[in-house]
Amino acid sequence: MPAPDRRSAFPARLRALGTPASSLVTRPLLRRSLPPQSGGRGAPFDSQGMARAGWHLALAASAAFLLAPTVLAVLASLKPAGDLYDANPLPLHPTLDSYRVAIADFPVVRLLADTVAVAAGVTILQLIVATLAAYALVEGGARAGRLALAAGTVAVLVPAQALIIPQFLLVTHLGWQNTFAGLIVPQLSGCAVPLLLLRQQVRAIPASLTEAATLDGANSWQALWHVVLPVMRPALGAVAILVFAGTWNEYLWPLIAAPGGTPGTIQTGLALFLNTEGANPGPLLAAATLATLPVLAAYGCAARQITNAFMHSGIE
Amino acid sequence: MSVVTPVTDGTAPRPGLVRPRPRPRRLFTRRSFTKHGAGGGWPFLVPFLASLLIWVYGPAAATVVLSFLRWNLTSGPPAFAGLTNYRALFADPNFLPAAWQTLLYAAGIIPLGVALPLWLAIALWKRPGRAAFTYRCLLFTPVMLAPVATAISWQFALNPLQGVLHALCDAVGLPTPDVLGDPGTALWGLDLITAGKVIGLNVLLFGAALAAVDPRTVEAARLDGATEGQVTRHVLVPQLRRTAVLLTMLAAVYAGQWSFTNISVLTQGGPVNRTDNVYYLIYVYGFDYFDIGRAAAASVLVVAALGVLLVAGGLLRRRRDARA
Prior knowledge:
A: MetI-like fold; 2 domains; B: mainly alpha; MetI-like fold; two-stranded antiparallel ribbon; 67% helix
């Protein structure tokens, strides 16, 4: 048996105490005035002030760098065509001209609705399949669990591009090209991701819980529905967010399954619009902004839930 | 601490804890559906395994078969071609450079997509509070934005002839770099744009690993007079090593696939094929040239190479962990 498993059997706290920190305690180090507290939460102008300012500067600069292109694009989308490449990024003569062109050619509302439908469909399908499999991990014994996890792990590692040709042929054979079924069902190929994410949660469910249910006369379905699901619900919510976000951002499969763009996702819609309006940056930036703002709004409302979902996604 | 019977999930029993109860091993017994549910998990696996079979393992097997066929979607029926497709690949002047560039994408994403997030996550962890939460959310925002929209924004921002970047470079007195148009820099430019979506995610994943760090280890080091830099280097980073290795492996494996959208939207492999990678090339063979056989052969080679890399990486990791 490999060593890492043995180590992870101990609680993280004990493990942490065995790390080089304890050897550091014995190591002679430069004596220095101690910071008042772990976080250095002193007044803004004490000795910690400089460090605090540097901290803000570094983090704000990183965030600004990552968000600058998006902000520039949103601002530029409000400029008249002549000012688009002005040195001044601010729209001094704001106009909605670009948006008028974009809305005429870029059916943003339909594309957003289609994308929500596809992402919701994929999320629901994947979660049903993964939840049933997760229950099998609780109830199915070691062999079922090993098989499911091995099959899932390998499936996650196979690059999507290596599978698209047979998937495309199958979807065409089924007559699913340019349909919601073609956009949604093949994305079951990713159903191993939620299972791997749910694994940690499942592991925490004591077998005695379902045992008690079965002793009380519940069958497997009842045990799943009344005992395991309620325990897993917070984890399921987080995983649903992750799957939804991943499907929302999916580009390759919609490109293959629905090249016509009806129904189509916002990703392929934008790519199509880029092909036709590439020489026309104003409307292009307006379309990109239209695709961005609803997501920003949703993210703004649920930032805490979304970041928590990713943070507790159970990566070891 | 209370000891609960661990759930058997495929890992070996954990030493020191109670050994898991032996479970009935029979398949599809009547017990599965009776009130004694234990051991009857198999039916619940069926939808999962069927999904993987139809949409992953079936297509994977079909790809192997297709790689031995000569089949152009636009022309007649497929015919057996032996190793022709593989020979054609190695004769193709685009394939081996694309394979090399796939490795470059992986190498470029690691400093930006793993090392920088590690540093940012530690900085955020040291000063928890409202400000840290806000920064974390801001850093994560690009992860949620549509990749195509982000690509379009970067293309606008990096315009070499006019615009904000041009004005900035002019003010400093430097010539404006044509990041995406110069064969020497285009790949790194795409890597940078791709990393923008990875940074925020990895900051959160490192943050999750940091949540398991015992603050007392840091307190002890501080009491001993360690500087903040020493605390980071000697206390926090060693505790994040496992996560860092895992995220590095993931970044190396997925860099090529993450770059796909940006290549497809921004450069289509150009200038002079310098931003091609094997994943994009598979797509081009299959859906631009309709050369199914060659696309399948390229897929087989890529998966084989990836498999070798992953197994080697896994063995290395296991050996290092065993020594640690």
